[in-house]
Write a structure and sequence with these properties.
Strand content: 15-25%
Radius of gyration: 19 Å
Distance between the termini: 41 Å
Structural class: alpha+beta
Number of helices: 6
Mean pLDDT: 90
Largest sheet: 3 strands, antiparallel
Strand order of the largest sheet: 1-3-2
Low-confidence stretches: none
Order of helices and strands: EHHEHEHHH
Amino acid sequence: MGGRCTGISSVCTGFYKTSLAAEKNGLTQVIHESVEGTMAGTFDAGLSMGAAIIAAESLNLGIVPIGGVRKNPGEIIKLLNLPPYTYPAVGLAVGYPKDESHKKPRLPFSTFRHNEVYHTEEMKEAIDQYDMEMEDYLKEVGRQQEGNWSKYTSGIYQNVYYPDVYATMKDQKFLNDK
């Protein structure tokens, strides 16, 4: 982004408040033990981040989502003093852009919006088209070594690139066993 960063926040998923409510009412919370709970909490964190992005951009601020907070989640948990049942999902840097950066092309709408059923027919063609756009963009910004979207993304997804997530989620009581 360049420029002046005015703040970085961590968007967390969490069931700490609801665990206190359950405790207060003599109930046992189990949602944090399930994959469904993890999905719901992550979705809520995404909604929160999306709202923050829209608000920042409406004020002409630049944003950079930071998935790298999950690279060393134990340190983030310690730094933010996160209680059990909470987990850092993503970071968000907000600031004043130094200049008008090159806007990164996005995958075509047709690759993630489907009517009635998931449409696979045009997916390969849309990815081929996007790869060409990304090659041009990456050359323009001096990152042509990345190749294109499909090459870069498929290379990343050959591994679990933040392997500490599972263990630290369990430490935070997200068992994902239900």
